[in-house]
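Can't paste images in this forum, so I'm doing it all in text. The chain is below; anyone willing to post the predicted structure tokens underneath?
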Amino acid sequence: MLGAFIRAFRTPDLRNKLLFTIFILTIFRLGAVIPAPGVNTAAIKQCVQDAQAADSSGIYSLVNLFSGGALLQLAVFALGIMPYITASIILNLMTVVIPRLEALKKEGQAGQAKITQYTRYLTVALAVLQSTSIIALAQTGQLFQTATCQPSDYLPNQGVVTLVTMVFVMTAGTCVIMWLGELITERGVGNGMSLLIFTQVIAVFPSSIGRIWQEQSSWVFALICAAGLVLITGVVFMEQAQRRIPVQYAKRMVGRRMYGGSSTYIPLKVNQAGIIPVIFASSLLYLPQLAIGLIGRDSDNPVVNFLATYFPADGGHAVYMATFFLLIVGFAFFYVAITFNPTEVADNMKKYGGFIPSIRPGRPTAEYLDYVLTRLTTPGSLYLGLIALLPMLALGASGAGGNFPFGGTSILIMVGVGLDTVKQIESHLQQRNYEGFLR
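Text version of the structure:
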């Protein structure tokens, strides 16, 4: 991996792309520490420290993770990339149920450009909604949920003009993040949005590890680091695991030339759904705590009391963990079903003269692909559920509290994006310095 980066910096055009990517990521991180208008910087930093010490920011852990800690600081980039991710997921789901979107998806590059435009519009709408909700929680004192932190401390001016300005600035920050991600994709290396998420996730690692070193004993710190390395190794192994289904193309005569006769394979990953099921499940379990924060924890409503008891902010209840696990497994099967269509793949293979050895083309091929995909998705979904639950179980065993840095979501993002970026760098290197059979 390090050798690929060294060779990349020796190639002029690839070096320029890497430097441009680093420059955009630096600007992105700069926006994550600039406070929004009307925020008392000193007071908000103190509130963040109190919330981390009391572990009272658990209900916003997912959004705070994707913002690199900018959410609790009410920064310009407080929303991070989360609105865009949510909009992309919604558009992918609606493509299956709305014929117009499905037709656009099949139109190629022009249709994809139209879907991207719809995603941007939806991202802006979600950014307005999320920024309004976060500012409302901050105004009512539900953002930090600590007795020492009062809304008047970090929001001294709570006028309508100030709050509307904060909503506008946070929404504009999300639009800038979308633009930065597209710039990286077009002129840099790797997928822009994925690299932005990767940057925000690793941004909170040094502080988390530092707090564990200060608050825990040496053997607990060593045990957590060792468990993190083992977890990363296992995730790398599972993310690379795949089932290769061989495909043979029959020879056919076109004019005076013979085409076909080649063999290839269809790579089906064990974790075909990626990180999406974990994001789905986390987003759904985030809604009950958001409702509790808006209604009030001291309410006599039995529904609120039920949610507060069985779906706590730290996720330590058995009902919360079981629901989280089942949602991940269900969403894994659901997302794979809508993103990989065995019937469409079988029809395309039959159209171009391809077939799986010992499997008849057409419907038998589709049934075989569906059978293999189901067998792969079952261990893949269980793996996702266990990886997401493992940090919750480790919290209670190690006593690290909310400072545990090796969360399932963060590990999956780091490993997935890191492997994908390295593969793209190696592909660029192979195009410029291809090694033949003779060396």
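Residues 205-406 form a domain with the Preprotein translocase SecY subunit fold (CATH 1.10.3370.10). The beta strands are 242-249, 252-254, 257-259, 263-269, 354-355.
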